[in-house]
Design goal:
three-stranded antiparallel sheet, 47% helix, hpI Integrase, Chain A, globular, 143 residues
């Protein structure tokens, strides 16, 4: 049986370093959605302003992975950046830009998915059922 690797995560301080080294506001928003909202890279690139309800501060994810819908409360750190939607970038381009930004800011070889893992780690105090709902995971899946 193959060994499972421990997922790579970053701290809030490390995330801030990446954001400070990133000049493109759309990329800053994309990274923030991964880190503060726990969104998948595919969800981030599909997000439009139609998915945002600022009045009740909700991101409405329509037909995300597994064709599931879910609502996410908008993190305060993301709310002031949503005017940069839509991102107008593909999954591969976003993955590449994050990898490049992380290497530049932290001298680490990181993937966009580490932002989602970092979200999961910093919210591990939440009940498992709640965290799974926020991450769009099946109730039967492992965290």
């Amino acid at each position: 049986m193959a060994k499972r690797k421990i997922p790579e995560t970053i701290t809030h301080k490390e995330f801030k370093k990446i954001i400070l080294k990133t000049k493109n506001n759309k990329n800053k928003l994309a990274y923030s959605l991964g880190f503060y909202q726990g969104m998948r890279v595919s969800e981030v690139v599909k997000l439009t302003s139609d998915n945002i309800d600022c009045a009740i501060r909700i991101i409405m994810m329509k037909e995300a992975k597994g064709s599931k819908d879910r609502n996410l409360p908008i993190a305060p750190q993301v709310l002031n950046q949503i005017q940069h939607l839509p991102l107008g970038v593909g999954v591969r381009a976003l993955q590449y830009s994050f990898k490049k930004a992380a290497k530049k800011a932290l001298d680490k070889d990181l993937h966009f998915h580490c932002l989602r893992q970092s979200y999961k780690q910093k919210n591990n105090h939440l009940p498992q059922k709640t965290l799974k709902q926020l991450l769009g995971l099946s109730p039967k899946s492992n965290l």
